[in-house]
Amino acid sequence: MRHVIIGAGGAGTSAAETIRANTEDEIIIITREKTLPYSPAVLPYYIEGTLRRDNLFIWDWSFVRRNSIDYVMGREAVKIDTEKKKVILDNGEVIEYDKLLISTGAKPKIYPEYQREGVIGVRTLEDAEKIRKTRGRVIIIGAGPVAVETAIALKKIGVDPLIICRSRILRRLFDEDISDIIRDVMILNGVKVLFERDIQLIGEPVEGIRAPCGVVYGDLVIAALGVKPDLSFLDNRVKLGENRGILTNERMETTVKDVYAGGDCVETKDAISGRYGIFAIWPLAREQGRVAGFNMIGKEKRYRGSINMNIITIFDKVFASIGIFEGNKKEFWHGSNIAKIFVKGDRIYGAQLVGRYAINYPGIVEYLVRAKARLEVRSISDLKNFIREIWKGLKTEYS
Length: 399
Fold this sequence. Notes:
The protein is an alpha/beta fold. The chain folds into 3 domains: 2-37 and 52-107 and 228-296, FAD/NAD(P)-binding domain, CATH 3.50.50; 112-223, FAD/NAD(P)-binding domain (3-Layer(bba) Sandwich); 316-394, 2-Layer Sandwich (Enolase-like, domain 1). It is 27% helix and 29% strand. Helix 1 runs parallel beside helix 7 (282-296). The longest helix has 19 residues, at 380-398. The chain starts with a strand and ends with a helix.
């Protein structure tokens, strides 16, 4: 049996590990990058110097050889023929498959007006290398997690980062007052934030931006405006969802027999709301790859659904965002520690946590959300007591 995997990200590597742990089947991984697998989530740590290049990679060549994985670097799939079960590469090579996993991830959204020399995303190791070499001022367009973490990394290495924010920092993860706290922490630590909606790039290569407040010059412009699935090679038998990601079922199967998908290029069901969406989160991609890998070798596993969970450290303060923010909001403020719990009926749907609560509770809150736990939250003590009872029960169960 030949398993072909397009993409060496979280889902692709997890699927390969699962297949090899359970079979001696042939495994071929195709990746456009000329490196071993790594997580894009760690690139800010590489930029700031706390993670060495050698420690970026999740596999080494010894692992690849030991597990008999045919690792094809620097090649891109340009077409898939799902009727004839073939993958066509950019050099004309044709690779046949018995089972196929599409795990090509996503690429940065760089709008046409930003597609010029001097503008890059933050998605690949090549991007990170360019950013590390930059000195002077870096203009970051966007205010999501990638923008924030990149700005922090640049500040730590002595570069002058400027974030261009259209509305609020991390607005999809936090409500207004926590977003304001994040803004203040960043500004106090020397990251400049400019709130402008209408900007234009100037120069080719880019020299800076023009906004209503005036002209701002920079040595590099980073477009951190989100990502979109990278699926230009698909044939139309593989159906896409409303968000232009590959539709998958609980087995990570696509609409075509023997074709599976996982990671940032797929749409999966939200475990809370039941709505389909794209969840570009590394641990979810790993889980999806594991489920796909088992099903590719005929061992049925089901994906339990996706939950958004983001934990971000902004200089010396930790923030966490879990689930969805629907229902009644219960707020608990204890100095600089904040917990906002979102409850519908007596079920927790999500939480926004700051400080000590963001360090101690994200995992257990995610567990409560996924387990559809029912409890009444009148104070942070109620949540703590409930967590203690669950922990006692788990210790009893597994002792």
